[in-house]
TrEMBL record:
<feature type="region of interest" description="Disordered">
    <location>
        <begin position="136"/>
        <end position="181"/>
    </location>
</feature>
<dbReference type="GO" id="GO:0007264">
    <property type="term" value="P:small GTPase-mediated signal transduction"/>
</dbReference>
<dbReference type="Pfam" id="PF11878">
    <property type="entry name" value="DOCK_C-D_N"/>
</dbReference>
<dbReference type="GO" id="GO:0007409">
    <property type="term" value="P:axonogenesis"/>
</dbReference>
<feature type="domain" description="Dedicator of cytokinesis C/D N-terminal">
    <location>
        <begin position="51"/>
        <end position="159"/>
    </location>
</feature>
<dbReference type="InterPro" id="IPR021816">
    <property type="entry name" value="DOCK_C/D_N"/>
</dbReference>
<dbReference type="GO" id="GO:0005085">
    <property type="term" value="F:guanyl-nucleotide exchange factor activity"/>
</dbReference>
<protein>
    <submittedName>
        <fullName>Dedicator of cytokinesis protein 7</fullName>
    </submittedName>
</protein>
<dbReference type="InterPro" id="IPR026791">
    <property type="entry name" value="DOCK"/>
</dbReference>
Length: 560
């Protein structure tokens, strides 16, 4: 066997697999491994790896271990400015006389803290040096529009439209030139003379050969560059797409309760050909395109005191909120597909709906003396049903108003417009006519173009007189049937002809809601400021169900 050389004797011949086996046998588990690794350091506290360790308090660590920064001109850029953050407490506005929160009783402390979050003052964190950070973007859309207001409009030759006469003359001149140029060979003496005669002279450069010092020329050029120059020239260019986008935190607005465009509807009167029993009505908004109900119901009572007396055994005292005859509807997404649906109900009685509604379609007010005995009999039957079943209701009739059609028609007329709406027997569509005292019964054409702006803030108040209702077909008017009927109301259709009309007269006053209405109640029946007298008939705010989501969470507490 050959002798091993000197450098080979120092090489270990242990195989890697044997080394791994030896280490695995020596350190069998993580705690043992941690113990063996800290054998040489007996003074340190050993913590098993299986136990959870409390995280380090970052703020406390920064206070106890201040950064070591050498004094120099860039010291302020490294350290955190102490006056950057300022906390301002702003009182929370409460639009109701009493805060809309439940009374604090023997509830859980966590629940009480959650309730107080609706009444505590706003804590606004103001950052003084926020504009100097990388997350601040000064080029917002509003600022871009503001910068572009004073800029002159750039007009190029290609954008200018020449007049017909001058344009035709120029075309004829070009034709003559082209013919003359084609007749002469290119590069010839005649062609050069032709070009010189038809070319316009260049503007002369004054003081071109005058001697001037270089400093004066530079100063003059600098003044010309600064003349009529925008202060933020480079900010006019839109920002480029970032390869690595930065999350930019905008300063949020103070949270507040969401309101759409508000519409005030006043219910003035409701009359039928015969008056034999109490009739109850309700209003609600529907969106045909979204096939969704976008407001809760507003129930109102327009019965006379004599008719209300028929329900006295069941209704002893009426709350002030039930006497409301005006409602404020909020519409976040107004469109040409919004309808105001009016439904009528009566006291539950024996028989089919068609039989119960038959007297209202047969008897007329002019024949009251002739049918006096029959009307007395019907009135006595209604009194019996009111005494027995006065707490229960049954559907009676319904109708609908194309809201944006009324708004657009009222906006083009004088103030205090009075519109009469009735069911046309020929076309089966709604027709709107002004009162004869104003316009001599002149018909108004419907305008239902989807391109019109749907605004509910600028139209003039209008008084509507609805003279026809549809008799309720079946025990219940399903939502799918209602959406079909509403869609047919916007165009002539034979579907509405199959519905039997009931003659009535309902007067409504529609106008934009004032900013701070008096004697107003929230959907939770809380009084809204100002509310001078609690005995006055109130106006109800109707809760909106937006067609699309509106994200304003945890702003107001609602009793539900």
């Amino acid at each position: 066997m050959a002798e091993r050389r000197a450098f080979a004797q120092k090489i270990s011949r242990t195989v890697a697999a044997e080394v791994r086996k030896q280490i695995a046998g020596q350190y069998g588990g993580s705690p043992q491994l941690f113990k063996n690794l800290n054998v040489g350091n007996t003074s340190s506290n050993t913590v098993p790896l299986t136990e959870a360790v409390e995280p380090v308090d970052f703020e406390e660590y920064l206070i106890t271990h201040p950064p070591i920064v050498e004094s120099g001109p860039l010291r302020d850029l490294i350290e955190f400015p102490p006056d950057d953050i300022e906390v301002i407490y702003t009182p929370r506005e409460c639009r109701t006389v009493v805060p809309a929160v439940p009374e604090e009783g023997d509830t859980d402390p966590h629940v009480r803290d959650c309730v107080r979050s609706y009444t505590e003052d706003w804590a606004i964190v103001s950052r003084k040096y926020h504009k100097l950070g990388t997350g601040f973007n000064p080029n917002t859309l509003d600022k871009q529009k503001e910068r572009q207001k004073g800029l002159p409009k750039q007009v190029f030759e290609a954008d200018e439209m020449p007049e017909n006469s001058s344009y035709q003359d120029d075309q004829d001149d070009l034709k003559r030139r082209s013919m003359s140029i084609d007749d002469t060979p290119r590069g010839s003496w005649a062609c050069s003379i032709f070009d010189l005669k038809n070319s316009l002279p260049d503007a002369l450069l004054p003081h071109l050969l005058d001697r001037a010092p270089n400093e004066e020329i530079d100063r003059h050029n600098e003044e010309q560059r600064k003349a009529n120059r925008h202060r933020e020239l480079f900010a006019l260019h839109p920002a480029l797409d970032e390869e690595e986008p930065i999350e930019r935190h905008c300063v949020p607005e103070v949270p507040k309760e969401h309101f759409g465009q508000r519409l005030l509807v006043k219910c003035l009167s409701l009359k039928f050909e015969i008056e034999i029993e109490p009739i109850f009505a309700s209003l609600a908004l529907y969106d045909v395109k979204e096939k969704k109900k976008i407001s809760e119901n507003f129930f109102f009572d327009l019965n006379s005191e004599q008719t209300k007396a028929m329900l006295r055994p069941h209704i002893q005292t009426a709350a002030i909120s039930t006497l409301a005859r005006s409602a404020i509807f909020s519409i976040t997404y107004p469109s040409q597909d919004v309808f105001l649906v009016i439904k009528l109900e009566k006291v539950l009685q024996q028989g089919d709906i068609g039989e119960c509604a038959e007297p209202y379609m047969v008897f007329k007010e002019s024949d009251a003396a002739k049918n006096k005995e029959k009307l007395e009999k019907l009135r006595s039957q209604s009194e019996q049903f009111c005494q027995r079943l006065g707490r229960y209701r049954m559907p009676f009739a319904w109708t609908a108003i194309h809201l944006m059609n009324i708004v657009n028609s009222a906006g083009s007329l004088e103030r205090d417009t009075e519109l009469e709406m009735s069911l046309s027997e020929r076309k089966g569509s709604w027709s709107e006519r002004r009162n004869s005292s104003i316009m001599g019964r002149r018909s108004l054409e419907r305008t239902t173009s989807g391109d019109e702006s749907c605004s509910l803030t600028g139209f003039r108040p209008a008084t509507l007189t609805i003279t026809n209702f549809f008799k309720q077909e079946g025990d219940r008017l399903s939502d799918e049937d209602l959406y079909k009927f509403l869609a047919d109301m916007r165009r002539p259709s034979s579907v509405l002809r199959r519905l039997r009309p009931i003659t009535a007269q309902l007067k409504l006053d529609i106008s934009p809601a004032p900013e701070n209405p008096h004697y107003c109640l929230t959907p939770d029946l809380l009084q809204v400021k100002p509310y001078p007298d609690s005995r006055v008939r109130p106006t109800r705010e109707i809760l909106e169900f937006p067609a699309r989501d509106v994200y304003v969470p945890n702003t107001t507490y609602r009793y539900r």
